[in-house]
Amino acid sequence: MSGPTIELRNIEKRYGAVRALDGVSFDIGPSVTGLLGPNGAGKTTVMRMVATVLAPDRGDLRLLGRDPSSASDRVAIRRRLGYMPQEPGFYRSFTAFEFVDYVAILKEMTDRANRHDEVRRVLTAVGLEDVASRKVKALSGGMRRRLALAQALLGSPEVLVLDEPTAGLDPEQRLRFRELVSQLPGRPTVLLATHQTEDVTALCERVLVLAAGEVRFDGTPEALAGTADGRVWVGADREDGARLSWRMGDGRHRHIGDPPPGARTEPATIDDAYLLMVGDTTAREGAAA
Question: Which of 91, 160, 180, 268 fits as disulfide partner to 228, beta carbons 3.0 to 4.6 Å?
C-alpha cells in the first residue's frame, strides 16, 4: 500500500486517574522506527494499540489503511501483523516447535506441511532450531524472548510490532537480532519499543522519544544526538551546572546540562540527548514511585 501504514492522531488513554497518553500523533511507513522512552512513558500502551489489543479513549488510529475499531477491519489487520509483546504468555508444557505451530494455526496457516516449513524457518531465523523439541519451561529467559520473536515473524508480516525485543538477550543475541531485523524481506513497517539507545542507534532510521505520555522528539537518531550539542563536557569533579553527571572509568566526570564559562564541550551522543530530554521526567517518576 502507498502512504503510511501506521497513523495515530491525537491519541489519548487513561488508566483511572493516570493519563498514559496525552495527544500522541505520528505516522509511520515502511521502515524501522524506534519508540524510545523510560519505563512508564506510555510505550507499551502505544504498542498494544498498534497491535489491535487495546483501543484508545480518544483520537483516530489507522493501521494498513483500516480502522481497528471495526471487527472486520481488525481481523484483516491481524492477518498482516506480527506482535511480540513485552511480557509474552506461553504454554509452558509445549515444545518450542509446538508453541510456534499453535500460533501459526491461529494465524490461519491451514496447510500442515507448509505451516511446519514456516515454523522451522522462523525458529532457524532466531537461532532456536537446535532446541525446537525442548519444552518451553526448560528454555532460558533469553530463549523464550527469541521464541516470542519467532512467532511474531510467522508469515513475513507487513507490520511488525516489537515491544522491548532485546530485553534479556546477551550481547551476541542482541547483535543477531539487529542482523535479523535489518534483513527482513519485503521492507515491512517495524515499530520497535525500547529503552536501549544502542538498539535505536544501530537499527532505526527514525526515532520517537516518548515521555510522560507525550512525543518529545521525532526525527533521525543523528538529529536526536544533535539536540545535545554544546551541552556535554568533562571535568575533574561534578559541577553545579550539570543536570546529570557520572564518574567515568578514568576518574573524570561526564556532565550534561549547562556548561560553565570556558568549559570544553565534547561530542554529544544519543544517550546524552535522551538523558537531557527525559532525565527530569524519570527522576520525577522515580520520586513518585
Answer: 268
Beta-carbon contacts of 162 under 8 Å, excluding residues fewer than 6 positions away, are 84, 149, 152, 181, 190, 191, 192, 193
Q: What is the pTM of this model?
A: 0.89
Q: Which helix (H) or strand (E) holds 61?
A: strand 58-63
- Judge whether 233 and 268 are in contact, CB under 8 Å: no
Q: In terms of DSSP H, where are the helices of the chain?
A: 43-50, 71-78, 96-106, 112-125, 141-152, 171-182, 197-203, 221-226, 270-288
Give the Cα separation of 104 and 120 in Å (integer): 11
Q: Which residues, 6+ apart, have CB-to-CB distance to 9 below 8 Å?
A: 25, 59, 60, 61
CATH 3.40.50.300 maps onto the chain at 1-80+157-220
CA 105/CA 79 separation, integer angstroms: 12
Contact residues for 249 (Cβ-Cβ < 8 A; gap 6+): none
Only one residue has cell 578514568, namely 250
Query: Which of the four pLDDT bands, split at 50, 70 and 90, describes residue 92?
Result: confident
pLDDT tens-digit readout, 47-63: 999 999 999 999 999 99
Kindly state the average pLDDT of the residues 65-79. 96
Classified by CATH at the fold level, domain 1-80+157-220 comes out as Rossmann fold (3.40.50)
Please state, in angstroms and rounded to a whole number, the distance separating the CA atoms of residues 274 and 208. Answer: 11
How far is residue 128's CA from residue 139's CA, in Å, rounded to a whole number? 10
CA distance 220 to 41: 20
CA angle 222, 223, 227 (to 5 degrees): 115
Distance CA 185, CA 122 (A): 13
Q: Which residue has the cell 524510545?
A: 36
Structure-block grid coordinates of residue 109: 496457516
